[in-house]
Amino acid sequence: MLPITTAHYVFLSAALFTIGVIGVLTRRNVVIILMSIELILNAVNINLVAFSKQFLSVNGQAFAVFVIVDAAAEAAVGLGIIIALFRNKETVNADEIDLMKW
Amino acid sequence: MPTVLEGLFFYLLATIILAGAILTITRRSAVHSAIWLVVTLMGVAGLYLHLHAEFLAAVQVLLYIGGIMVLFLFVIMLVNLDEAARQRQFNRQWSVALIATIVLMVEFGYFVWKGAGAFTFAEGGGGSLAPNTQLISMALYRDYMLPFEIASLLLLVAIMGAVIMAKKQI
C-alpha cells in the first residue's frame, strides 16, 4: 500500500468541502444548512493540520484552534437567528424566508 | 508494517468521514443529520490523532461534539421541525449546485489522474510537533497573542448577540 502523503489529506478535505457545499446549496432546512457549514469548516481544519504536519510547524494547528472558535461563534449566532426566525415566521425553510428580497 | 497500518487507518477514517458527511446532508430528519454529523466529527478527531495533533483531537471532541452539537440538538428540540420533515427537502436551485459540484469533480479527477506526483510540497523546516500541547500554547500565547485576544472578544460578542437574538423581549 502506498504511504499516506499530504496529497491524500488534501483530497479528503476537498471531498468533504464539496459535500458541505452541496449541502449548503441544495437543502431547504436552515438547521441542516448550518450543519453543512460546520462540515466546510472541518474540511478547512483538516487541510491546516495536514500542512502543519508537512511543514513540521505548529502554526497550522494554532490557526485550526481559531477556526474552531469561529465555528462556535457562528453556530451560537446562527442558532439564535433560527430561533428568532421560527418565532416570527413559523418556518425553517430557507426559500420561504424572502422578506428582504425585492 | 507501520505503513500498511497507517494506510488502513487513513482509509477507514476517510470512509467514516465521507459517509457521515453524505448522510448528514441527505437525511430527512434534522436529528438524524445531527447524529451523522457527530460521526463525521469523530472521524475528523481520529484523523487529527493520525496527524499527531493530539490537542486538537481533544478540542474537537470537547468543543465540537460536546459543545456545538449539543447546541444544535437543543435548537432542533426547541424548533418544531416535524412539518419541515414532511415537506420537500431540496430547493429548486439544485442544478446550480450540480454545476458547482461538476467543476469540483473535474478538478478532483484531474489531480487523481495526475497522481500524487502532481503535488510537490516544500519540505518542512527543522521544527517539531512533539510536545504538542506545549507548542500550541506557546504559539497561541506568544506568537499569536493579538489574534487570540480578538478571538476571545469575538466569542464574547457572539454570546451577547445570540442571547439578544433568541430573547423574546429585550
Protein model, in words:
The complex is a heterodimer of chains A (102) and B (170). By secondary structure, chain A is mainly α. Chain A has a domain at 29-90. Chain A has helices spanning 6-26, 30-54, 59-89. Chain A is elongated. Chain B folds into 2 domains: 1-83, Four Helix Bundle (Hemerythrin (Met), subunit A); 129-170. Chain B has 7 helices and no strands. In chain B, helix 1 packs antiparallel against helix 2, helix 2 runs antiparallel to helix 3 (54-78) and helix 6 (132-143) packs across helix 7. Chains A and B meet through helix 1, helix 2 and helix 3 of A and helix 1, helix 2, helix 3, helix 5 and helix 6 of B.
Short description:
The complex is a heterodimer of chains A (102) and B (170). By secondary structure, chain A is mainly α.
Strand percentage of chain A: under 5%
The radius of gyration of chain B is 21 Å
Roughly what fraction of the amino acids of chain B lie in strands?
under 5%
Q: Specify the structural class of chain B.
A: mainly alpha
Low-confidence stretches of chain A: none
* Largest interface summary: A-B, 76 and 94 residues
Biggest sheet record of chain A: none
CATH topology of the largest domain in chain B: Four Helix Bundle (Hemerythrin (Met), subunit A)
Helix content of chain A: over 70%
Count the E strands of chain A: 0
User: What's the gyration radius of chain A in Å?
Assistant: 17 Å
Estimate the global geometry of chain A from the Cα principal axes.
elongated
**Name of the CATH homologous superfamily of the largest domain in chain B:** NADH-ubiquinone/plastoquinone oxidoreductase chain 6, subunit NuoJ
Count the E strands of chain B: 0
Count of alpha/pi helices of chain B: 7
Please give the share of residues in helix of chain B: over 70%
Distance between the termini of chain B: 62 Å
Coarse morphology of chain B: globular
Helix-strand string of chain A: HHH
